[in-house]
Amino acid sequence: MLKTVVNIIIILFYISLFIELFFYSIPSVVTTKKMLSPRLSQSNLFSDNVKRVLNWSLSKKIIVFFLPLIVIYILHALPAYFLFQINYNDHLLDNGSFTFYLGIFLVILGRVISHRYLRDIKKIKTKAFDGFVATGLFKFSRNPGLLGLYTSFFGFYLMTPSIFFLLCLIIYIAHMHYKIIMEEDYLMNKHKEDYKTYLQKTKRYL
Q1: Is residue 57 included in any domain, yes or no?
Q2: Total domain count for the chain?
Q3: Does any domain span residue 137?
Q4: Which residues have a Cβ under 8 Å from the Cβ of 9 and sit 6 or more positions away?
Q5: Contact partners, residue 55, CB within 8 Å, separation at least 6
Q6: What is this structure's pTM?
Q7: pLDDT tens-digit profile of 138-187?
Q8: Structural domain of residue 121, as residue ranges?
């Protein structure tokens, strides 16, 4: 029974993740592809500190912004590997501990947060969108989509703890946090007082 539940949760995780990434992604000015382009550094909507980063050499940008993507892709594949393991090793679920069940709860909670986040961004599902959202979950967190993903991945870590999984998760969070800071820098310079007021009212994560 537990194996069936875990199988369903992991499969639904990937289905919802696919929908989130390919149908409801928010347009960003600091995607990895844009970060590697020299044209982004010419924007007047970044502070001098961010412009210095954008003017790094291509090789340095690849090391800092592109190589972590390999680790992030591995992280996203680890739940599938866990799915493979539990279907070929019945003993993995024999001694479900409190942390294991807590992990299941966090995976589900993270997907619920992400589902609500998708509802909030339906109105801006366009590449022409160049503002910021301050309604729905965005009233409580400036990055509810990432918060949902972090919650789900931490849940998977509790279900199948390993140093490798934790390291991948830390790199993922650090990589996205750095890009969030750059995105916020852009939005601050573009929307000025409106965005400053939003920053003061709403925390970056929780």
Answers
A1: yes
A2: 1
A3: yes
A4: 104, 107, 108
A5: 41
A6: 0.90
A7: 999 999 999 999 999 999 999 989 999 999 999 999 999 999 999 999 99
A8: 2-13+29-201
